[in-house]
Design goal:
By secondary structure, this protein is mainly α. The protein folds into two domains: 3-84, Orthogonal Bundle (434 Repressor (Amino-terminal Domain)), CATH 1.10.260.40; 85-120. It has helices at 3-13, 18-25, 29-35, 43-53, 57-61, 86-119; strands at residues 68-73, 79-84. A two-stranded antiparallel sheet has the order 1-2. Helix 2 packs across helix 3. The chain is rod-shaped and about 85 Å long. Residues 7-60 form the HTH cro/C1-type domain. This is Helix-turn-helix transcriptional regulator. One of its GO terms (molecular function) is DNA binding.
């Protein structure tokens, strides 16, 4: 994914239309469209785009489609970016669910044994 595609994808994630971002940047929608198709964007322009998207330039540079970014604010209202892979989270949750179900089955089997022993 090139830098232009990253800008476009982050714009979409933030729910900002191309015309709105272009207006924030003081450029035409056509100029923004061209930028979103560029392989490289100079640092000054990237700073302006990042500011308009309310993210840091590093968030744009390091953006990956398979990673979710959560912005958490510390006591000084400084943004701390936490990145995680949603697939890894789903797998971890599935593993927890599976472990819980195994414990539940063990408990039910134990209760069944106790009931059967009471009958004999």
């Amino acid at each position: 994914m090139n830098i232009g595609q990253k800008i476009a994808r982050l714009r979409e994630i933030r729910g900002i239309k191309q015309a709105d971002l272009a207006r924030r940047l003081g450029i035409t929608q056509q100029a923004l469209s061209k930028m979103e198709n560029c392989e490289v964007v100079d640092d000054e322009r990237l700073e302006r785009v990042a500011s308009a998207l309310e993210v840091s330039p590093d968030v744009i540079r390091n953006f990956r489609e398979d990673v979710i970014i959560n912005n958490v604010y510390d006591q000084n209202n400084t943004v701390i970016n936490y990145q995680f892979n949603p697939i890894e989270k789903i797998v971890a949750l599935y593993d927890q669910l599976l472990a819980t179900e195994r414990k539940r089955i063990e408990l039910l089997e134990t209760l069944l044994k106790i009931e059967q022993e009471k009958k004999h």
